[in-house]
Each structure stands twice: as C-alpha cells, then as structure tokens.
Specification:
Length: 423
C-alpha cells in the first residue's frame, strides 16, 4: 500500500533517481478518457459539407436536365454537319459562313417538308368537313334500314349541339388553348437553343478541340482527337446514309402512289421517306399508315396494294440496300441497334431514339481498337455444325434404345457387369 501524508493523499514516492509525482485523481482520469477526439468535429463538418454539396449538385442537375439534353442534341447535330462544314472550309470558305450555309439549307428543307405536309393535311381536313353531311346521311340511312328507325339528320345535329358532352369538350378545349400555346413557345425556344449551340459547336470545332486538349497530356490528347474523329465519321455517315435511303424510299413510294392515282403523292412519298428512315425499327410501317389511309378513301384495294409494297420494300431495304450503304458508316448488328434504340428511348425519349445508333456505333468503333482479337480455330462447331456422332438428341437415343430387343439389352447389361468385375 502506498504511503499517505497528513491530508490522506498519496505521498510522493522517493526513489534513488528523485521524487515521483503522485498519481492523478480518479475523476481527472475519467474526464480525460471521455474527452471528444480532436479529429471528430472536423470529420463531422466534412461529412455535412459533402452531403450539402451532393444535395446542391443533385438539385442543380435536375434543374438543368433540359439544358443538358439540348446540349447533347446540339453536339450530335454539330458532329453530323461537321464533314460538310470541314469540306467547305478546306476549299477556302470561312468556317462560320460554311456553317451558316449548311444550317440555312437544313432550314429550307425542313420548312418545305412542314409546309407540304401541312397543306396536305389541311386539304384532307377541309375535304372531310365538306363531305361530313354526306357521310352522316349515309350512316343515318344505314341505321334506319338496319334497325327500322326514323332518324333524321336535323335531329342528330340538334342533339349534338345541345349535348352536355359537346359543351364540356368546348370548355376543356378553351382551357387547353393556353397550355398548347405554352408548349409551342417552349418547343420553339428549345429548338432555338439547340440550333444556337450546334452552330457554335460546328463553327468553333477546332477551337473547342484545342481548348479540351490544352488541359490534357499529349497521350490523352491523341485519344481525345481520335474519339472525336470517330464520332464525326459515324454520326455524319449515319445521317447521310439515312438521308440517301430516305430519298430512295420517297421516290419509290411516290412512283407507286402516282401510278395508283392517290392524291398528294409527292408529299406522301416525302413523308414515307423521312419517317421510315429517321424513326428507327418501326418507322417504315408507321410511315406507311398515312398513305394507306388516304388510299383507302380512294379505293380499299389501293390500300392493300400500298401495304404489300411497304412490306416488300422493307425487305429489299433491309437485305439489299441498307447493308451496302451502311457497311462502312454504321456497321452494327440489328439486335444491338434495336437494343440501343430501346435504351435511348427509355433514357431520353424520342431524342434518345435518334442519337442511340450513332452513339453506340461510335462507342463500338472506339472500343474495337482496344479489344485484342485472336484467330478462330477451324472447328465445325464455329459454323454451327456438330461433329459426326456427337451431340445426338435425347429423342434419338431413346428411339435407338427402344428398337433394341430385350435380349440384346440384357446381354449388353451382362457384358457391362462382367467388364466392371474384371476391372
């Protein structure tokens, strides 16, 4: 037991080397052990700061998602017109002027397509409105003849004009005019944003590449420039090949519609060509619905002719025309193209469906240089064949066993047992 002084505390311990100070009280030791580590407040502040930055970044990303999508669209559009702009710039034209001429040409083509399609739809709507009384009379006569009723067109018109359904529809339509106007203005602003960014991307393409490469080491600069070149080739090649196939498809369908005497044959041919090529996978059948409908109003058999031609032309395009035009531009498997379109639609909607194929083709071409390939052995299984005597089906084995006699099977069993005993 340690010695104590008059106050009851431990006396200093005397050793040959000097006096040892007394041990600290129990309360002081407990307080030192319970004291907060010095790194804990800073760690808590750092964690709270990271959470705040993450929340702020997530909020900003959701607020700017529309702008980011517009920038992605503008970037791919700039990649698509990059070959034409570069070709004009290589022949002595200023890059800004070349970009303006390309955009002006695209504007003229788009405006002409919209005007032609709008005039066709307006003419069809006017024709339907003018012929609506005759259609209504034919329907009323069929109802009176079939069900022995005595309906009149005047009674039907008065019932429609004084119906609650028509009144509610008119009120909802009037209330929705403001929403439609807002959507139209928003679409025009979005289109202007995409056009502005794509113009800057295309006109200042070399400056943009220099800016990106200036912050990268030389090895990375070569990779970025190579990826950029592949993206330009694949995106431009995709759009140009699609434009050529749209022209061929439009001319072919125009010849058919003109031969059948279908009205608005040039506009319908242009519609089929554009929609069938720039709406992936189902574009041909979706585009063929409008000429089929108009052909049905002329003669129901004409609609059947149009349907048959659409199906036959789709097969010709898939197996003859498309492989020759796209084998050097966007050479990807049809299943991969379909999957990329589905994924792009799920991520970005219609925009994703349009840019999915060139994006996947660019990624495939870029990664193809880094995937090491080996020579394939000459094996029949590579070509989908099996070696002789291998891989017989279960049904074949059961049939061979059933054809054997019971004595043969029992003899084979005894021979196998004898072999096992000898082993």
């Amino acid at each position: 037991m340690a010695p104590t002084d008059e106050t009851g505390q431990s006396a200093p311990h005397t050793s040959p080397y000097g006096t040892t100070p007394p041990a600290p009280p129990a309360d002081a030791a407990t307080g030192a052990a319970a004291r907060m580590p010095r790194w804990l407040p800073r760690a808590m502040v750092l964690a709270l700061s990271l959470i705040a930055v993450f929340q702020l970044g997530s909020w900003a990303f959701h607020q700017l998602i529309g702008l980011l999508i517009n920038i992605v669209i503008a970037f791919f559009l700039a990649l698509a017109i990059e070959p034409a702009v570069s070709w004009m710039a290589a022949h002595g034209m200023r890059r800004g002027l070349a970009t303006f001429l390309v955009f002006f040409g695209l504007l003229i083509v788009t405006a002409g397509f919209v005007v032609l399609l709008g005039s066709m739809l307006a003419g069809q709507i006017i024709k339907m409105i003018e012929g609506f009384p005759d259609y209504l009379d034919s329907v009323i006569n069929w109802i009176n003849t079939t069900f022995h009723t005595h309906l009149r067109r005047v009674d039907v018109q008065e019932g429609l004009l004084h119906s609650d359904w028509l009144r509610r529809y008119a009120q909802n339509s009037a209330a929705g005019v403001l929403d439609v106007s807002t959507q139209v203005l928003g679409g025009l602003f979005r289109l202007l944003t995409v056009a502005l960014f794509s113009f800057y991307f295309a006109a200042d393409g070399p400056r943009l590449r220099r800016t990106i490469c200036s912050v990268l080491p030389p090895a990375r600069q070569a990779e970025v420039l190579r990826a950029w070149e592949i993206a330009v080739d694949k995106t431009g090649g995709y759009l140009y090949s699609r434009g050529l196939m749209a022209l061929i498809s439009g001319v072919a369908h125009y010849i058919l519609l003109e031969a059948l005497g279908i009205p608005y044959a040039p506009v319908l041919g242009l519609w089929v060509g554009v929609v069938s090529q720039f709406v992936p996978t189902i574009g041909t059948y979706l585009a063929g619905a409008l000429p089929m409908l108009i052909a049905f109003t002329v003669n129901p058999w004409y609609a059947v002719w149009v349907l048959g031609f659409v199906v036959i032309y789709q097969q010709f395009e898939n197996y003859v025309l498309q492989p020759k035009l796209t084998q050097k531009t966007v050479d990807i498997h049809p299943a991969l193209a379909f999957g990329s379109v589905v994924a792009g639609t799920a991520l970005l909607g219609a925009v994703g469906a349009l840019i999915a194929i060139p994006a996947v083709a660019t990624l495939q071409a870029f990664l193809g240089a880094y995937v090491k390939r080996y020579a394939v052995t000459d094996d029949p299984r590579v070509h989908g064949h099996r070696r002789r005597g291998e891989g017989s089906s279960l049904f074949t084995r059961a049939w061979q066993l059933a054809r054997r006699s019971p004595d043969t099977r029992s003899g084979e069993g005894s021979v196998q047992e004898a072999d096992r005993e000898s082993e």
